[in-house]
């Protein structure tokens, strides 16, 4: 589980997201994009224009499962995602 980015290598714009299962989430993004119905219209437009081969999936940070019970991992991942966006000072992000 962790925070990842999908980077457009043509214009360096990135989509930052998080998931308990990053591979499944990446596959979901790809499927939505391939069917032309991704919720982020700007991201979809660039995918259509540049093609799948110009987008890369990169893990930014991983979160290790704790032995503690009752941990809200989605909340922790969202916080980590927001911290990374600030820390990396990304200039061009799909919003």
From TrEMBL:
It comes from the Bacteria. InterPro entries: GIY-YIG_endonuc_sf. CDD domains: GIY-YIG_LuxR_like. This is GIY-YIG nuclease family protein. The lineage of its organism: Bacteria, Pseudomonadati, Bacteroidota, Flavobacteriia, Flavobacteriales.
């Amino acid at each position: 589980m962790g925070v990842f980015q999908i980077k457009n290598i043509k214009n360096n714009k990135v989509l930052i997201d998080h998931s308990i299962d990053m591979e499944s989430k990446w596959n979901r993004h790809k499927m939505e994009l391939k069917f032309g119905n991704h919720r982020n219209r700007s991201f979809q437009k660039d995918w259509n224009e540049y093609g799948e081969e110009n987008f890369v999936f990169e893990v930014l940070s991983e979160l290790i499962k704790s032995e503690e019970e009752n941990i809200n991992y989605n909340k922790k991942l969202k916080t980590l995602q927001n911290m990374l966006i600030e820390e990396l000072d990304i200039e061009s992000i799909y919003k």
